[in-house]
User: Fold these one by one.
Assistant:
Number 1:
Amino acid sequence: MLSKLIMAILPKMPQSFVWLFSKKYIVGRSLEEAISVSQKLNEGGCRITIDLLGEFIEDAQEAMENKEAYMKILDELKANNINGGVSVKPTFFGLLLDEKMCFENIREVVKKAHSYGIFVRIDMEDSQCTDRELDMYEKLHTEFPNTVGLVLQAYLHRTMSDVERLEKNIHSPENPINIRLCKGIYVEDESISYKKYQEINDNYVKILKKLFDIKAFVGIATHDKNLTDIAYKLIEDKQISQEMYEFQMLYGVQPKLRRHTLSKGHPMKVYLPYGKDWFGYSIRRLQENPNMVMHITKSVFRF
Ligand code: FDA
């Protein structure tokens, strides 16, 4: 009830007020701030991945500007010797306007990243994008070995068959597929997605086992302690090398669990969203995830 009320009110509030709610989860408005936080996290033993926030784009010019902004992030990561890479959302590069243009934009980013030895993760968006993002990943994985990865979502019924498709088409010991496995954040129809907590977690574990078994690189992206506990055990039982996995968490979310995972000696990557478009992003995230509203509210009002 309280979450719904806060969600309804937030978009009408002044940005400075919403910033109070969001700042724990957004690294800052500028690239300088993102680099500075990256340096601190690197010092604390975490890798990072930077995500430039943005609203839905309307034309090719905006897609081009976003590409240029990512080129600049790559330059700064290299110049500052940051242990980390970038995460890209294909719609931000024009996926829903012109697929070919989007591919060329992302390809340029990946090409530059490859020349710098920096990793690029293709975030997974809603289900209208899934096939297109898989196709894009297959092409880039082959052209730029060990440079690019994809996200898969455990809440989708199709995800196991997507892993099998990638295994068959592009996976090899020299150039293993690199998958960030998350639960999935978008609102999907129940005909294509699991809705219940336990069903999503069961599918998560099934896919995690499969990825370990085929020797893919896995980014275990979750703040769910039930899942991190299972992952620790699988890593131990299956003797998974630290070269082949890392835990991944969002900036500001469950810092205790992050510290706990690090203290057990596991590699950790932190996802860092930044940018001047933080307002729209925050409102959307808050509307998508009512739990987050409560979480943020608790952290601000300390109840
Ligand atoms: P779950 O939702 O069960 O949460 C576990 C615990 O963490 C709960 O206590 C919950 O309240 C808390 N929590 C979780 N998320 C929180 C948040 N944002 N703020 C405050 N508390 C929170 N999704 C997607 O569709 N495409 C993508 O590309 C990505 N990329 C991605 C990268 C990384 C590094 C992470 C960690 C997550 C994503 N996600 C994503 C989001 C993911 O799909 C999922 O929605 C969230 O991680 C929440 O799921 P959990 O696995 O954390 O479990």
Number 2:
Amino acid sequence: MDYLAQRKEMVKSQLENKGIHDPHVLAAFLKIPRHLFVPEDQKNLAYYDGPLPIGEHQTISQPYVVAYMTQALNLLPSDKILEIGTGSGYQAAILSLLVSEVYSVEIIASLGPRATAVLKELGLKNVHTRISDGSFGWPEEAPFDGIIVTAAPEKLPIKLVEQLKIGGKIIIPVALGPLNQSLRIYTKMIQEEAPGYRLEITELLPVLFVPMTGEIKD
Ligand code: SAH
């Protein structure tokens, strides 16, 4: 099984041909071995164009969606990024090649060790993980330059906004109803006339993520 050849094909047909153009993002997808982030019995499907089960009723997202969200954040090498929903660790691994530090939070304790073992095996030392409820963010490490949420809440958790720098972006699938989620970017902007900040919302595309669980509902 030639995984590198499969990965090259994935990058060409699923990413480049569908509009992912950032050379740094494409290079990261060529480098990170997606098959290491899926269970043994899914390895032969690792480079297909879809999400895959990773246990605990959770999934590793479709490569295109991971790439699209990564590209949409307009990352800088100096960025410190928070991810909510470590899952397999794949999205965190991709981010780790593009930014300075990645903080990734997972709520299901049994998923943590597998993700951290693969990240360690790949030597990605700038990914920091912990098991906690991501609706609270990671306040000890705030503020972040960008936040990526890979599970769908019904509302944007306010704690995440508080932990974002001015000018930073949160990319998040917001659940509008069952099977109806909108991927959005919220940009935190300075409020001109009053103290505080305002949020600029950009609607991107319909998506389907697992629901965000946890305590804070808005
Ligand atoms: N980014 C992952 C895919 C994540 S699937 C990857 O690359 O593989 C969504 C993940 O979000 C699941 O593992 C789920 O357990 C987690 N999740 C759901 N609600 C959460 C919360 N409140 N805090 C942290 N993680 C959460």
